Amino acid sequence: MTIERVPQKHYPKADIGRRSMALGLDFLGVWLVSSLLGSSNIGIQFVEILVFVILWLVLRVLVPYNNQGQSLGRWAFDLKVLEVEDGQIMGRIPDLLSLVKREAIVGLGALLVSIALSNISANPTAILLILPLAIDCGTAFSDAQMRQALHDRYCGTFIVSSRRGYSLDIKIKRLVDNMRRNVRR
Predict the structure, then answer these.
(1) Pick from 156, 110, 151: nearest CA to 133
(2) Which letter does DSSP use for residue 58 in this model?
(3) Distance CA 82, CA 90 (A)
(4) CA 132 – CA 90 distance, rounded (Å)
(5) Who has greater pLDDT, 116 or 86?
(6) Given a cut of 70, is residue 112 above it in pLDDT?
(7) How far apart are CA 185 and CA 183, in angstroms?
(8) How far apart are the first and last CA of the chain?
(9) Could you identify which of 32, 74, 85, 159 might form a hypothetical disulfide with 70, taking C-beta atoms 3.0 to 4.6 angstroms apart as the criterion?
């Protein structure tokens, strides 16, 4: 009796640019809604932070858990989050606890960026609040094989390209190409 190895399904790695745009789209949506509910005072707004955290968890945990691993940003850029075990992509959506841990790490960095954006005019050193998110996500640049950020490594997740989505990046490229052709005429 021989043991035969079943070939693993190939999952294409998502490039850093598309991952950044998906995160940016999710952040922009949550930040706009939460900043509308905050006051115009300088400093940390607790209602704004509470709304940000709740919206972040809904958009980045509950929606992907119920939508094949895709948040609004990941859907717009044809990405999804999958589970990794022992360096092998399992092909299934991570469990709810893994998603909560993953998005708590990313959400904290995004929350600090939100606070920095709200206070940058009064305190220019608030720009330093961007560093935790930059360090967390920047580790994906150094990981040439898996392209996992710190939060992905800690929670055992992996971002892959998917066929199901809106393909916003491709549609924008086509629009820019059409505009360039029309300008040249």
Answers:
(1) 110
(2) I
(3) 7
(4) 29
(5) 116
(6) yes
(7) 5
(8) 70
(9) 74
Q: Are 82 and 12 in contact (CB under 8 A)?
A: no
The DSSP annotation for 115-171 comes to: HHHHHTTT-GGGGGGGHHHHHHHHHHHH-TTT---HHHHHHTEEEEE-SSS--HHHH
List 80's β-bridge partners, or say none.
160
- What's the one-letter identity of residue 117? L
Per-residue pLDDT tens digits for 174-184? 999 999 999 98
Nearest one of 154, 148, 56 to 108, comparing CA atoms: 56
Contacts of 158 (CB under 8 A, 6+ apart): 11, 81, 82, 83, 84, 89, 146, 148, 152
What confidence score (pLDDT) does residue 130 get?
A: 95
Q: Which one-letter amino acid corresponds to residue 22? A: A
Give the angle 72-99-21 at the CA atoms, nearest 5°: 35
* Assigned token pair, 168: 């916003």
Domain range list for the chain: 16-184
Residue among 107, 123, 118 at smallest CA distance from 39: 118
